[in-house]
Fold this sequence. Notes:
This protein is α+β, with helices and mostly antiparallel strands. It contains eight helices and 20 strands. The chain folds into two domains: 225 residues, P-loop containing nucleotide triphosphate hydrolases (Rossmann fold); 107 residues, CATH 2.40.50.140. A hairpin with a 4-residue loop joins strand 11 and strand 12. The protein is globular, with a radius of gyration of 24 Å.
Amino acid sequence: MTAGIExxxxxxxxxxxxxxxxxxxxxxxxxxxxxxxxxxxxxCGKTTLLRMIAGLDATTSGTILIDGQDVTAxxxxxxxxxxxxxxxxxxxxxxxxDNVCYxxxxxxxxxxxxxxxxxxxxxxxxxxGYEQRLPSELSGGQQQRVAVARSLVLEPSVMLFDEPLSxxxxxxxxxxxxxxxxxxxxxxxxxxxxxxxxSEALAVSDQIVVMNAGLIAQAGTPQQLYEHPHSEFVAGFxxxxxxxxxQADTSGQVSLGPLRLRARRTVPAGTVKxxxxxxxxxxxxxxxxxxxxxxVKSAYLGSFQELTISxxxxxxxVTSPDVRRAWTPGEALSLRLSDNGVxxxxxx
Length: 348
């Protein structure tokens, strides 16, 4: 595979040489024609990475390549990169067509050619017929499509998305992330996508990069990061996993209270962390070979129940598909662990 974007030991600090590094020697490859999501808590450096790809921020050291070309010293206009911002940044006084044409117009593309290409880009994102509307006459989802079309029309080597769905409601967010993913796959775009939403990252990505304090904590496919986190931080960040202290023996068997499980990856004997997702718990009637617990509260959410259960290893957050059962606070229960949704990592 060819690298669409490549970082080689990239660092970034704002201010003088005494200022702390925001990005600390990052090596990263985004394969050409794929979508990589950069995920992490606020202040971890993910938006700084995106701005350095775009050329909006200069690197402090290191090299950035796009399609194999060193672009480290090039300005934004020389990189063939388009960026979709969180705010969409549409011109309120311009029609949709003029907004989409804008980038072509300022680069000297003839008006008729610019309009033709803009209509084609609008058609690709489902905006045919909206040419003469103003941004104020559009919904949030439609405004986002205009921003995407304005980037697409420039036929960039790389498209960048900075929290593109954060201004939309939950249902629209779901449909728009599906549209962005379908568009990326259909046009074989190279995309770097920043979000703080783990479910969004899992849904759209070929690769997820989890950042923490300016460093890459782990990079891999969505399945690799969800099922095989390498650290306590990644295990706790991907999804709603709860972390518990356990004991590993030399054979890889791990004890979690009265429960026994086998680590999927090699961990040293001694204290480890066990990350358990809410769906990994299997709730049963009281049983001698399981973890005993007492139901504290329950909440009905249509397709599943959310349960809070008090146990010897702590208060657990559990989801159960058994929505027909009557759940009574104070009742005695037992819990077992399924094979999925459980990860063992070294204690941090």
